Amino acid sequence: MLGAFGEVDAIEIDPAAREIASARLGKPVGSSPLPDLTGVEPGSYDLVAVLDVVEHIEDDVGALRAMARVLKPGGKILITVPAHQWMWSAHDVVNHHKRRYSKGTLLAALDKAGLTWRKLRWFNSLLFPVAVAARFAGKLMGKDDSDDSPPPAVLNKAFETIFGLERHLLGRLPMPPGLSIIVIAEPKA
After folding, report:
1. Pair 182, 82: CB distance under 8 Å
2. Which residues have C-beta within 8 Å of that of residue 100, sequence separation ≥ 6?
């Protein structure tokens, strides 16, 4: 999809996932891990997109600095992260998350990395009440495991439709708190 806007490069540190991604992209996918991005040329990119990645990196500020280094002048970083530390659960543990973010903690990390933000929004807001109810129900029942198996097809299709609807609302309407935060960041002037 991003190829419609220009040339796309990708990084994936897991060898099996990198092989799949390379096949889908039609060219080799790199393996330069964050927080350093070793081997990625400084000043190479107009846009760096890190979608649900930063929460996996112990040194999130260092990772953000590395991303800023590989931007061309005027370049931007598109970031999505899971929101609400109070929602921390076995799902975060099994997915190797280091943290969940509030808008404040994300902005603080951006600031420490020498970045400023242009747009900052909640997203995945329409499913937020369902997720909160499920999380609290699990805690009340003493369930503290992570079932990452896909829901039944009908339910999965309903979630996909709801999430798809929200993409048309994002940026047009202020969204209430959601499961995630999206931000467009750039180096400070």
Report:
1. no
2. 55, 81, 82, 83, 84, 85, 87, 88, 92
Residues 126 and 159: their CA atoms lie apart, in Å, by 10
pLDDT one-digit tens code per residue, 59-99: 999 999 999 999 999 999 999 999 999 998 888 998 999 99
pTM for this entry: 0.89
For 33-58, letters b (16+ CB in 10 Å) and e give: ebbebeebeeeebeebebeebbbbbe
Given a cut of 90, whether residue 116 has pLDDT beyond it is: yes
The average confidence (pLDDT) of the chain is: 92
d(CA 57, CA 89): 18
**136, HSE (Cβ side, Cα atoms, 13 Å):** 5
